[in-house]
Amino acid sequence: SNPDRVFNFAAGPATLPEAVLKKAQSELFIYKDSGMSVMEMSHRGKEFTHIIQKAENNLRELLSVPENYSVLFLQGGATTQFSAIPLNICTPQDSVDYIVTGSWGDKAAKEAQKYCNVNVIWSGKSEKYTKIPGFGELKQNAGAKYLHICANETIHGVEFKDYPEIENKDGVVVADMSSNFCSKKVDVSKFGIIYAGAQKNVGPSGVTIVIIRKDLIGKAQGMTPVMLDYKIHDDNNSLYNTPPCYGIYTCGLVFEDLLAQGGLGEVEKKNVKKAGILYDAIDGSKGFYRCPVEKSVRSLMNVPFTLEKSELEAEFIKEAAKEKMVQLKGHRSVGGMRASIYNAMPLAGVEKLVAFMKDFQARHG
Ligand code: PLP
Fold this sequence. Notes:
Blueprint: E1 7-8, H1 18-27, H2 46-63, E2 69-74, H3 77-89, E3 95-100, H4 103-112, E4 117-123, E5 146-150, E6 152-153, E7 158-159, E8 172-176, E9 193-197, E10 208-213, H5 230-235, H6 245-260, H7 264-283, E11 289-290, E12 302-307, H8 313-322, E13 325-326, E14 337-340, H9 347-364
Parallel strand pairs: 1-13, 3-4, 3-5, 5-8, 8-9
Antiparallel strand pairs: 2-10, 6-7, 9-10, 11-12, 12-14
The site of pyridoxal-5'-phosphate has 11 residues, from α3.
């Protein structure tokens, strides 16, 4: 690997596999026999048609996406889906349930309130978003059109390890998987909609992936902007307007890389190992480092931690950066540190961080 590259612990945009970047570099100027870059080609030409179809097929293979689900490559980030979801599957009179386990779930619920009746049936806010509810304690609303969860809270580092079901048999579970998309196996059939911004695990920013059960498509509220209407995008194979071509191409390279690694079962094993090493270092530090999240729901992707001597945090981040480990500062809303260790973070990066943490403790503990 390239010694000039840092270990980038950013939450997103985030580190990408070196093999993917090299492949993109080798094709940057001239893509195959097209005589041009992917950035320059028509989204309706045969090369790009092949690129987007292959990306979709590979994603379908990775996640074993059932036939009765559509895969859409959209724009606007996961944030746009916060409004697209209620607009597409609710009337203004409908009610929906949200479980709020962190800032992203909170944002999603607040946006949905503009378009339907939102019930926040559980919130972890009073416990500083360190928990996931027991599913038995949820009081779902009988008529809820959907139950929304954020599968992995990027800022707070809380991750669902299994998923609640919706009691309303006509309702569906909707999941924001932005920050743990393709990090492990998921039974897609348990969800009505899975959505994710690409810029953590599967590509650059600018691509938003929506996996949606087909029978949910085609019921958008009349006022729904054309760009937010799933039916428009589905009918046009994500080519209604100019898509984020280069981003989709890069996602396609990542999907190939994940398949080459042996698929999401293998990817998950690596993620479990990496996260385990880091949490063990935190828990084994005799309180020098702390992770506030309840152990059973700690994220494999985003590891927030603080220093007992909080006045040393800035020094920790500065020294780490000198050692080529960057973007370890916690989100501005929670402070402390956060190490995002997505699929593309090598084991060596986590090992280096842990060695640094031990050394820092030896010097400052
Ligand atoms: N949901 C989660 C879980 C996220 O981590 C983020 C961004 O970090 C978003 C939603 C918002 O995504 P975007 O910036 O792509 O709109």
